[in-house]
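A reminder from the course coordinator: this example appears on the midterm review sheet, so study it carefully.

Given structure:
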């Protein structure tokens, strides 16, 4: 495992016009990627919020056939929880207030020594020691 994907990266193939670069990188690194369980939650939540439609059906198939069956889902454990608490405390003391969700995703990436792949590097740039990439 090398990369932990944020929701915006793993869901890119579902866009009306997906970014070719991201789709190619997903295929290139298909055996080196994982998602945190919080991203799985975020993907399901967005799907379940949709009315029954062909779009929702397409998303449900992608989530089951591609994400659930092909991409490991990593747990948020005590090591990640400790790192998250320390980093949030440090950032709050400097006047920054990272979201709980973003800091939890960052914590899973850091605790598993993975590169976090996101389209929103700005949301994660203040975490110490976190490796980031944007596949755009």
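Designed residues:
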């Amino acid at each position: 495992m090398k990369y932990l994907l944020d929701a915006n990266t793993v869901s890119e193939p579902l866009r009306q016009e997906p970014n070719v670069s991201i789709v190619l990188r997903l295929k290139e690194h298909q055996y080196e990627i994982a998602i945190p369980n919080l991203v799985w939650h975020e993907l399901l939540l967005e799907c379940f919020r949709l009315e029954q439609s062909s779009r929702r059906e397409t998303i449900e198939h992608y989530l089951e056939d591609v994400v659930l069956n092909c991409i490991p889902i990593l747990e948020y454990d005590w090591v990640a929880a400790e790192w998250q608490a320390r980093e949030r405390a440090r950032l709050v003391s400097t006047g920054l207030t990272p979201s709980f969700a973003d800091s939890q995703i960052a914590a899973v990436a850091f605790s598993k020594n993975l590169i976090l792949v996101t389209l929103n590097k700005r949301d994660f740039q203040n975490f110490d020691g976190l490796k980031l990439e944007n596949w755009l």
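The chain has one domain: 1-136. The longest helix spans residues 54-70.
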